[in-house]
Structures are given as structure tokens and as C-alpha cells.
Amino acid sequence: MIQPRDGVARIARLGPPLTVAILAGPILAGLAGTILPAFGYLPALGGARLTTDAFATLFAMPGIARSATLSLTTGLVSSGISLLLVMLFVAGWAGTRSFSRVQSMISPLLSVPHAAAAFGFAFLIAPSGLLARLVSPGLTGWTRPPDLLVLNDPAGLALIAGLVVKEVPFLLLVTLAALPQIRLTETRALAAALGYGRIAGFLYLAWPAIYRQIRLAVFAVVAFAASVVDVAIILGPNIPATLAVRLVGWMNDQNLSMRFVAAAGALLQLVVVLTALGLWIVVERAFARLREALCARGTRLRRDAGLRHASLGLMTLSGGIVLAGLVALGLWSVAGLWPFPQPLPSTFMLQPWMETLPRVAGPLATTLAAATLSTLIAILLTLLCLLRERDTGRTGGRKALAFIYLPLIVPQVAFLFGLQFLFLSVGFVASFSGLVLAHLIFVLPYVFLSLSDPWRAFDRRYEAVAAGLGKRRWRTLLAIRLPMLARPILTAAAVGFAVSVGQYLPTLLIGAGRLPTITTEAVALASGGARRTIGIYAFLQMLLPAIGFAIAIALPALLFRHRRAMQS
Amino acid sequence: MNGLTLDAITIALGQRPLLAISARVAPGETLTVMGASGSGKSTLLAYIGGFLAAEFSASGRVYSGDAEITSLPAEDRHAGLLFQDPLLFPHMSVAGNVAFALPANIKGRAARLEQAAAALADVGLADYGDGDPATLSGGQKARVALARTLVSEPRMMLLDEPFSKLDAGLRAQIRDLVFAKARAAMLPVILVTHDEADARAAGGPVVTIGEDA
């Protein structure tokens, strides 16, 4: 094999080391920057010797054990329900028409930022929310909003439900991506011929291979759910709040000595996430045992119609809840007079929009700029890595994949906090480039995961043909491969853009409150009751990614409107 | 015109040797390489063309005329490739596909399109230039792929079972067209196939690889 010595190869060589540096650098540095203050070392705040005082203060905080437990249980339960639902649904329905219908309803919901989905959910289930209005006073007799603690309930049930409806689209999508690994039609036919029910046949024959493929994504979901901040602020319990929410409070406390406690708490959060993952692995094993035992006994589970229809119903419900929540957001943003229990506002007005828009301009510009820049850099780095992959003939395999997932599994609070300290000490905090870098850490994995499969699936004989025609590699890349992959590249960009728009914690911490985005502004409104303003911010939050995806679909369709093979 | 010389070429996948071959192909002549699928006959073309995947190891030299091309990158070898699939670039027009292949020394958009149109007329597709490649029939696509290869002024043609996906009637027609054009351009051709009829139509020497001989 001839070692490529052309310009493309030379530049592509930079891809992997740069990507590694961007993914691992901030995480390692950030973790160090968290560990040191947790043990009392932070010269800037007068902490010069190592102590465990911060931990003593942390554990003396009222309700700290409950906060940590809440993080653990809400994380595990929401991930468990989501995965179980997606698994049963795929097992019962993959390959059917109903499956495609639900899939096309749920997939777009992936682009809805967590905070927007959570607000929508809150607007739906609150005592004065859309659901209560729809059934009142007819079914309930309520003429005033009931005094029920539906939102922010102490057990975190609303938080769990809010996380489930947002995790389901993600898990469904990664499962769909793994589905080509198995020969669905043949597997189904084989299982049916042997007399197995649809769900049992799928779980015995196909699920283990699929789960192996999606396991890291599932870990990311568990880690995220056990350390989420924005959704927990909006839907989670208040007294006490989950650990991650309290941490962020301490990090922004006027009293700077609370930073030591926050750092110690960030380490506790890391332990909580590791515990959650550990328990998850135990459950994984137990589930595998159970499946093997049932399989070994030849349990057919043929009467699974009830379970199948339940999974279909719940999936539809889960998607419907997010959609209805978005409608509620939109309605509130233009609602004039809307007395309880009317299901629709009696008057509509644009005044809140008019009043809010001038104030939105700044955060909107920051959101767009950070999302565009971080996405462009992520696309570029991903392309370089993928080009390099071709030159070396290695994909990096599982190790590289675990690496890509690193920023999605290490809890954000645990290293962003330390990163904020480091940025502070070099005067980088609240700088726009710092914000872009912080977003890039989370945008890059999603862009890479979204683009790598279509890139690798490209028929390389096209490039061989072009090279045989005497075209340089640059030319082949620009004239053949990139245009032919325009659709997946733009889709990956839309994914990256959506991820950046939705970032709450990195924006809050690295922007130090001085670089507000639509997302941080929206979450900041959560504790107040300004439904119209929340509606506007959350609506914008959901609109931006939707515009991104619309462009990703429309642009290639327009450019290649006369090319039939480029249409799908 | 230059012939093509394969000097002691061996290709292996890991520890498993796939093939070993030495041959000389005169200008206008076709060497047919036969072998069962999985015998590695396509990797021979990949090695000659300069796009062998990194997981294969290979040795031996390739000469075009007197010039050794073994260490040249693929784009400097000028190997006209035809695969099982026509592999027309789906985002370009039919004429765009052919124009893309024209050498850089033909300057100007109008001149290039004119040349492309002439090349298309030459394979009986005079009016199809503006069309979408996806709307062509299988035989038409194969003709465009041939025209695209010929205008690039290749030094050799490497054919990887290019007729196997065409139905029987069309197959003979396209096969005759390809061999006639290659002979007219005095190009050395290497054809890999597992179809005896292809080998007979090619008319040149036949070697079989991948068997323990």
C-alpha cells in the first residue's frame, strides 16, 4: 500500500489528536480542577493546604443524603423505564407499519432541547395546566386549579416522567441505528416458525446483539439522568432538590467559601453517577440471566398481544406528551386572558412577544453564534478523523467509541466546575471562545456518532473511479464525496446545532452568567410564574433546532432536485 | 501506445496469500483473469490501480510501457476502471459525469461540455447529456461509464466483472462495445470475471488464479 503523502492526508493526520485533546483535555483538567478544591486546595480563595473540611460541611448539609438518593433513583428509574419501553416496543413492532408511524412521530422530538420539553411537560401537567383544563370542570368539578403538588413533587415522579419522555426518542434512535446488525425479517420468521411470541423471539434472538451495540448510549442516558440540572430545576423536587441542582446553587453562591463545598459535592455527584452505572450493570446481568433462563426453558410467551399493544400505546403517549407540551408552550406565549378551567385562551395577544423580543436579541445572537461555530468545528474535526481512518485503515474500534462517549458519561457538573476554575485562573471564563469550546465538548460526540456510519458506508469505488480518471484527492473529496454525502453531513450539523442550543450547564458555568443564551434565560425563569415569557423562550428554544433540521432536509432536496438518486 | 507489465505480483490478506501473477499485456490486447468469488481477483485490479485497501499486503511491480507506476498514487496511474455497477456520480448530469473525467488541459466550460457531448454521441447517447443518470437504463448507464473512462485518456483499462449485472442480450452488446473501443484506443485491458463467455469474447490470453495449482 502506498502511504498517502498528499495534502488531504497531511491535514487529516491532525484530526485524531485534536479530537482527543478536545474531548479528554477539558475533562481531565476539569476533574483535577474539581478534586483539588474539594480537598481544600484553591490558592485564589485562600485554600493552601489539603483538608477534608469541605466534605465535612457537605455531609452536614441538611437533606444531603436525600438529595444524593433522589439523583440516584430518578436517574435509574427514568432510564430503566425508558429502555424497557423502547425495548418492548422494538421487540413487538419493529418492521411493521405502526412502527414506522411511531418512529416518524418520535424521531423529530430528539431535536427538542431538554429544557423546552420539560417546560412543555410542566405546562401540561401543572394543576392549572392544559390537562387539568381539558377535564375540568366536567370530570373533576374543579373551577379553580386544585392544590396538588403535581410538579416538583418530593419523590421526583414528575422529574422521572419528564426524563422518560425525552430519553425515549434518543434510545429509540440509537436502537434503530443498531437494527441493521440483525436480519430482522429472517429472525422474526425463524422465531415465529419455532412458535415463539414476537417479543420473546426478538428478545432471545436479536436483543443481545442490539444491546451490545447501544450499551454506551444507554450508559450516557443513565449518567445524564442521574446528574441532570435543567430538567430537575423545572420538574424536580425543591426541598431538598436533587444533588446536581443544589451543586449549581452552591457554585453560584455569593459566599465564595461555598465553592469548596460545591467541589466536594461535584465529587459526590461523580460517585452517585458511578453508583448508578454500577447498579445498572447489576440489573443488566440480572436481566440477561432471566432472559437466558426463560430461553433455556423454551418459554414461548406467545400471548404477548397485551404487552405489545401496551408498549405501542405508551410509546405513542410518550411522543404525544412532548408534542402536546410544545403546543401548550406555543399557546401560552400568545395567550391573553386565559382563566381556569378554559381549555383555550379567551383572547390572544402578541404583546408578550413584542415586549420580550428586544430582550431576546442578545441571548439569541449568542445562542446562534455559539451553536454555529461549535458545529462547524465539530464537523471539520469529524471529517478529518474519518479521512484519517481511511488512510490508516483503522477505525479505532471500541476504544475510540468509548472515548467519544466520555463527555456524555462523565457527569457535566463534575468536570465543568473544575474547568470553570481553570478558565478563571487564566482569564478565559465568560469569554466567547471559552463558551464555544465548552459546547464543542458535547457537540463533537453527537456529530461524530451521527456522521461516522454514513461516511463509512460510502461506496469507495466512486473514489477509485475518480482517482482512475486522474483526479487529485482534494478534487475527489470536494467534487464527489462531500456532495454525495451532503445529506448526512447536514443532518449531523443539525444534530450538533441542536445539542449546542440545548446546553444549559456549560453555558451557565463557563459563561459565568455573562453570556446568556435562550436556554439559560429560559431555565432562569423556571422559578417565577411568568408563563407567557417562559412560553416564548421555550418556544424559541425548540424552534432553533427545528429550523436547523428543516434546512438539513430542504437544502439537499433543493440542490439535487433534478437528481433522483440523491433524493432519499 | 504502452503495454502493461505485471512483474511478480503477490497479494495477501494477513497471513493468507491470495494470488501471485506475472504477465505482459500488449496495447489493444485483453488479459482475462478468472477465479471464483473470494479468490482476490478484484484486489489485483486494486493493486494495479493504486487503491488497494490498507488491510491487504502486496509486493511486485507494475509497468506502463517502460515506466514503473507501482509507487505512484492512484490519480497518476490513469487506470480506467469499470466495475459491476456503472457508478455514475449521482449528483451530476450525464454530461457532467463525462466532463468531470476530461483531462485538465481541456480548458473552458463550453469546450469541455462540447467534448463531453461528442463522447456521449460516440456511445450512442447524443441527446442524453442534460439528463439525470438515475433515469437511464442499465445499458445506457454502462455506456456513459465507458464514455467517461475513455475521455480521461487512460493508459490502461481495468474491468471488474463490468458485464455481470446486465441481462444476457445487453451483455454481449456492451461487451463488444467496450472491447472495440479499447482496441481502437490501443489500450491494454485486464478483465477479471468468472464468466467463460466474457473470456471468449475478450479473445486474449486467460489466466486462472486462486486455485492450488
Largest interface: A-B, 36 and 44 residues
What's the average pLDDT of chain B?
89
Uncertain parts of chain A: none
CATH architecture of chain B: 3-Layer(aba) Sandwich
CATH superfamily of chain B: P-loop containing nucleotide triphosphate hydrolases
Sum up the overall morphology of chain B in one term.
Answer: globular
**How many extended strands of chain B?**
9
CATH superfamily of the largest domain in chain A: MetI-like
Residue windows where pLDDT falls under 50 for at least 5 positions of chain B: none
| First and last CA, distance of chain A | 35 Å
| Named CATH architecture of the largest domain in chain A | Orthogonal Bundle
Main beta sheet strand tally, sense and closure of chain B:
5 strands, parallel
Structural overview:
- The complex is a heterodimer of chains A (568) and B (213).
- Chain A is 73% helix and 0% strand.
- With 568 residues, chain A is mainly alpha-helical.
- Chain A folds into 2 domains: 1-36 and 365-507, MetI-like fold, CATH 1.10.3720; 64-327, MetI-like fold, CATH 1.10.3720.
- In chain A, helix 4 (64-93) packs across helix 10 (198-205), helix 6 (114-125) crosses helix 8 and helix 16 packs across helix 19 (432-457).
- The mean pLDDT of chain A is 88.
- By secondary structure, chain B is of the alpha/beta class.
- Chain B has a single domain (4-208), classed as P-loop containing nucleotide triphosphate hydrolases (Rossmann fold), CATH 3.40.50.
- In chain B, helix 2 (94-101) runs parallel beside helix 4, helix 3 (109-122) crosses helix 4 (138-151) and helix 4 runs parallel beside helix 5.
- Chain B is globular.
- The chains are: A mainly alpha (568), B alpha/beta (213).
- At the A-B interface, helix 20 and helix 21 of A face strand 4 and strand 6 of B.
